[in-house]
Specification:
Elements (H helix, E strand, L loop, with lengths): L3 E4 L42 E5 L3 E5 L8 E6 L3 E7 L5 E5 L7 E5 L3 E4 L15 E9 L3 E4 L5 E11 L3 E9 L8 E5 L3 E11 L3 E11 L3 E12 L1
Parallel strand pairs: 1-14, 10-16
Antiparallel strand pairs: 2-5, 2-8, 3-4, 5-6, 6-7, 9-11, 11-14, 12-13, 12-15, 15-16
Length: about 230
Amino acid sequence: MKRRVLLTGLISILLTACAAATPMPTAVPTATLIPTPVPTFTPTAVPLNVNLRVMDELINCRFGPGTVYELVDELHAGQSARVVGRNESLTWLYIRDPGNPNGFCWVSAGVTETQGTVEELPVVQAPVVTVTKASLRAEPDRIVVGCDQFPQTIFLEAEVTTNGPGFVTWRWEASTGVSSDNVILVFEEAGKQVINDYYQIGAPDEYWIKLHILAPNEIIKQVNVPVSCTP
């Protein structure tokens, strides 16, 4: 899968022992994200009995109708499954996942053999892509220095994973009450992207920093960084 690294602007928070934080640099304003519809399909009046059999040695069953979506399961040669829908071009089939009786996934029509009238199956819309995993770490995660050794730098690394192509809106938030403007990550396919940034700390305190994912679904990851000094 493709990995793209986004180096955000160098956002610094310079704190003094009794002063407020310096505001973060302004990020480029971003457009409002409009999520795609939730995948649905309209059942026909008479349930269709359409089945498929896997022709290739191994095929992928994906979260959506395309290779840009996350892999959900694998089907082996000779394995069969019930087909409950299709995309408009009949190139992908929406099936009951044999590995998960309550689940569904998409397979390419070109590597299967079908029995039944595929053309009469309902058209299923592509699913809404979401962030499936996010993480955040700070280096160092604790600072103890001489009181004359400020400012100190905290390096941040965040990882964001989606199950398909789409847009992810996020921002930094800090315990000092400041936050960055919203930023958008563009995912061309399912996978992981890395965000690198840093903060400068100007005084001892108990700090926290959050990665706040706003859309397409909300996720918050936080790191705590205690900072102390000795005379």
